[in-house]
Amino acid sequence: MLKVKTIAVGPLGTNCYLAIDPETNQGIIIDPGADKEKILRAVSRSGVIFTAVVNTHGHFDHIAADIVKTELGIPLLIHKLEMPRFKNGIADQMMLLGFGPAEEMPEPDQFLKEGDEIRVGNEKLIVWHTPGHTPGGICLLGKGLVFTGDTLFCKGVGRTDLEGGSDEELNKSLERLLRLSGEMIVYPGHGPVSTIEHERPTI
């Protein structure tokens, strides 16, 4: 099972995750939303070889420090339907909300789709396309855990009132997640870790 380190980044307290396979000492970075230097310090201290950066969706608070991919010389992966959010308006969004200028945004190296496998050493994460919060939002399903981005939180779900949001699509995505084993650990885009069983009564 993957070892997960959580780094809270940025004014919105986004969860950036270091997902690590202890057997091979390899890992990936999920949602580097801000605080590039904080993330790079954690990477350096870990002694882990990181092989990819993955964005669960394209909102600025999950991608603003994607430049770590250039610093580390590793590929950046995101769903293709997120490119409108990834490419348009991130600097304007951040300045408007008082978060300061964004880092230079690198180009993605690979577009993810439903069913893709992301290798993490000897472990793997399966891409689930889970639209609703955004059209190209994804969850990453692994052994005993799932990274849910802004689709599912502890005692909450992703908002749908932003551009590209859809209540109907989100409900379909949530229904799919809730069919997982109740013991599955949920690593959300914001807030504390939960489980599928804990979230069933709240949705």
Please write out the topology.
Layout lengths: L2 E7 L4 E8 L4 E5 L5 H11 L2 E6 L5 H4 L4 H5 L3 E4 L3 H5 L2 H7 L13 E3 L4 E4 L2 E7 L8 E5 L2 E5 L2 E2 L2 E2 L9 H12 L6 E4 L5 E2 H4 L4
Parallel strand pairs: 3-4, 4-5, 5-6, 10-13
Antiparallel strand pairs: 1-2, 2-3, 7-8, 8-9, 9-10, 11-12, 13-14
Write a brief caption for the model.
The chain is α/β, with parallel strands linked by helices and 203 residues long. The chain has helices at residues 36-46, 60-63, 68-72, 83-87, 90-96, 167-178, 196-199, and strands spanning 3-9, 14-21, 26-30, 49-54, 76-79, 110-112, 117-120, 123-129, 138-142, 145-149, 152-153, 156-157, 185-188, 194-195.
Can you describe what's shown?
By secondary structure, the chain is of the alpha/beta class. The chain has a single domain (about 5-200), classed as Ribonuclease Z/Hydroxyacylglutathione hydrolase-like (Metallo-beta-lactamase, Chain A). It has helices at about 35-45, 60-65, 70, 85, 90-95, 165-180, 195-200, and strands at about 5-10, 15-20, 25-30, 50-55, 75-80, 110, 115-120, 125-130, 140, 145-150, 150-155, 155, 185-190, 195. It has a six-stranded mixed β-sheet with strand order 1-2-3-4-5-6. Strands 7-8-9-10-13-14 form a six-stranded mixed β-sheet. It is globular. It starts with a strand and ends with a helix.
